[in-house]
Design goal:
single chain; mainly alpha; CX6/COA6-like_sf; COA6_fun
Length: 113
């Protein structure tokens, strides 16, 4: 399983590629579309982390399952390695934005002195 799509225990269907076969353009597009819909739901509910999260507080994960249907579509459309990558990238982008905002705040504060 090169790209993380499909598994030996899954039934063969047209929505998932065969084991070891790279995803088609349509499969990649479906993955991106379902990922974007899932992340839009998370954003709408101010949830930073994809998945259920492991900390206290709603911002750390979708513990209430408000985006469960979107998550199910995302996970069924994308390979596990892609999901892991996209989810880690989402957290990294939030951290980078927070760091840049803090740096801008400090720059403005220093300029006022």
């Amino acid at each position: 399983m090169v790209f993380g799509f499909g598994s030996s225990s899954s039934s063969s269907s047209s929505s998932k590629p065969a084991d070891g076969a790279p995803p088609t353009r349509q499969e990649r597009q479906r993955c991106w579309t379902t990922r974007d819909a899932y992340y839009a739901c998370l954003d709408k509910h101010d949830i930073m982390s994809a998945g259920e999260g492991d900390g206290a507080g709603a911002a750390l994960g979708d513990k209430e399952g408000v985006c469960a249907d979107f998550r199910k579509a995302y996970e069924s459309s994308c390979g596990k390695s892609w999901i892991d990558y996209f989810n880690k990238r989402r957290i990294l982008e939030f951290r980078q934005a927070k760091t840049l905002a803090e740096a801008a705040r400090q720059r403005e504060e220093a300029a006022r002195r």
